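Curious: can you check?
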Amino acid sequence: MRSTFARAMVVVAAVTALAGALRLADLDRPYRKVFDEVYYASDGCWYAGIDYETCGLKSDVERSWVHPPLGKQLIALGIDGFGFDPFGWRVAAAVAGTLTVGLVGLLAFLLFRSELWAAVAALLLATEHLHFVQSRIAMLDVFLTMFVVLGFFLLVADRRLRERGTPVVSGGSGGVARPEPGRGGIVQRAPDGRGSEGGTESDVVLREEEAAGSEEAEFPPPRDRSVWRPLRLLAGAAFGAAIAVKWSGILALAAAALLSLAWERTRRKRQGVRRPTLSALGRGLPGLALALAVVPILVYLATWIPWLADRGFSLRELLTHHGEMARFHWNLDTETSAGTPVHPYMSRAWTWLLLARPVSYYWQGDPDCCQEILGMGNPVLFWGALVVVPCLLLVWRRDWRAGVSVGPILFQYLPWLLVTRPLFLFYMTPVTPFLALAMTHALRDISGAEAPARARLAPAAGLVLAVAVIAFLYFWPILVGSPLSRFAWEARIIHVWIWNWV
């Protein structure tokens, strides 16, 4: 495992470095504010302490007051370091996007214990179109995404750590056995005798030599220390930071809470607790509430300290401001008083996986054609999710790892189907890392099929990865705003013939 971990760190670092190079290349192009940078780059400048006129604001008040401050504070760090120019206001997003690629690789390694699949997951996100574009623009969504992925990475790390010391009741003798040393997880015995950590969470078959023993429990259930678990507390802090970027981080926190509760139930069932669900809700609830309710709230409030300091730490003003934020989002309409759409690139949530309406962030045309930055998803991941996610839902019952990708996808996507306010495809940015994880899980299962099916399916897994990377290279010019001839532009905007993209 130590050598595997070392190799994983090398390959994840290599893919992360590649992602960083791609995101930093010509980051200052175009040399002006594009799309919502007129809000967030200007406000980041204001947060950096620069006078509002230089920042392009009309008054000494931020324009994006309807969102919490953390994302704009991070943009301000880039401006502090590199100045108020396109590179300065975009570099923080590029760093956040790059770090997210590395976190996805590490999360995949925690799940699958393989440097190969860690590299695949990281590469799929590094070349995911929407995440790539959001990593090169001063907007909030890429920071939200980074903290969400960090939160789930820490939760899975906490689970792996807990698995190491959790005794398991054997199904045969009623004795209790430890997980296999060095693997940090439960070992199942496959029919051919090989160990595997996949399979059901509840029906665990241990080694014969571990399962054999006295009829009474050899190891008593360990003391429940579910309250003070540093990794889970840090995960709560990460989710609190996500909410402090955009309130939609609450969706990821809800997914984390549900997964954590399910894992607590499973752990207690393996310990032989008679009523594991009640035990998880009873003894496990204080720890969950501390990590995934109290800590996120404290972190969220901490990001408002500079705002409060400017107002004499008036909690009344803070509550009033939050009420105004909520009313703004609640009362947003999709049409103007004249009956026209409030924005040309709005889209309904049900169209997002279809990529029916991307968002054009930048356009410059001339008789020879154009330059464009188009916020669109990688079709391999978005269209593939229509097949992969339902399949992993079926797998989830016997393999908890499927829930780490499917849970965040569903919780961060499905609620938008009920929302009537103006919506945009880039709201899917925090979902993209989990689309990459879900595809990685599917490719792993395909390539790991039993022979002779494996000989046919393993090349198919490699082909899917290759197509995803090739699609990224093909669409590259309209992701970064490179000049294109009309023929080259139309060849890439294939959906102009289908769904009227532009």
